[in-house]
Amino acid sequence: EEKVVESGGGLVKPGGSLRLSCVGSGFIFSNYDMSWVRQAPGKGLEWVSSISTGGTYIFYADSFKGRFTTSRDNAKNSLYLQIDSLRAEDTAIYYCARSANIVLTGSIHRWFDSWGQGTLVTVSA
Amino acid sequence: SYVLTQPPSVSVAPGQTARITCGGNNLRNEHVHWYQQRPGQAPVLVVYHDDERPSGIPERFSGSNSGNTATLTIRWVEAGDEADYYCQVWDSRGDHPGWVFGGGTKLTV
């Protein structure tokens, strides 16, 4: 069974740091771009960051540049998200998602074909 | 960045057909993907590439994309279809490519 499982969430004080992890199994992890998606309580889905198969290319949504750092270790089938200077508004479920893509007429189109169950980050004093 | 607009809510009776729309500028030039998120659960891909279904997704789920609007259609709606539904595209414009989600539509059965 192909799956991804997140861990590392928890209660953190404002200004603190956290490192989230995601482990993939049942598929060749190094063959896939991987991403983080965030969902604040009662809100919609928000793409955070993506990393290419070998880790060479890393993209961040504008709102997540600066305090968020994405990395991966293919030897461990793992994806990471380091969040620094945490704020109350970072309180959310963070999902790990596997990216799929297709190239048509010279354009690439991407979507998420597998999601983890998410890990909850709560930022509160 | 590219903006996708969804109605906040759609209501439908069991056994009827639900249509959830997703609007965007010249959306027909993009490929739209749809996710279902049941309460307390992770999102699940239900339609990709406008009208393709992943394995395991019932044929009751279908998608279309024309003009400025993509539509997720759910036929013979069941109570278990009650969920939030999100559309998504890959925005390759400019210097900052990335995934864009619509705001989500709550389907009430």
Explain what you see:
With 125 residues, chain A is mostly beta strands. Chain A has strands spanning 3-7, 10-12, 18-25, 34-39, 45-51, 58-60, 68-73, 78-83, 92-104, 107-115, 119-123. In chain A, strands 2, 4, 5, 6, 9, 10 and 11 form a 7-stranded mixed sheet that branches. In chain A, strand 5 (45-51) and strand 6 (58-60) form a beta hairpin. In chain A, 36% of the residues are buried. The mean pLDDT of chain A is 96. In chain B, 0% of the residues lie in helices and 43% in strands. In chain B, strands 1, 3, 4, 7, 8 and 9 form a 6-stranded mixed sheet that branches. In chain B, a hairpin with a 2-residue loop joins strand 5 and strand 6. The interface between A and B is medium-sized, with 27 and 29 residues.
Shape designation of chain B: globular
Q: What is the ordering of alpha helices and beta strands of chain B?
A: EEEEEEEEE
Helix count of chain A equals 0
- In helices, the fraction of residues of chain B equals under 10%
Strand content of chain B: 35-45%
Describe the biggest sheet of chain B? 6 strands, mixed
Average per-residue pLDDT of chain A, rounded, comes to 96
Radius of gyration of chain A: 14 Å
Measured by residues with Cβ under 8 Å of the partner chain's Cβ, the largest interface is: A-B, 27 and 29 residues
* Cα end-to-end separation of chain A: 39 Å
Number of strands of chain B: 9
Morphology of chain A:
globular
Low-pLDDT residue spans of chain A = none
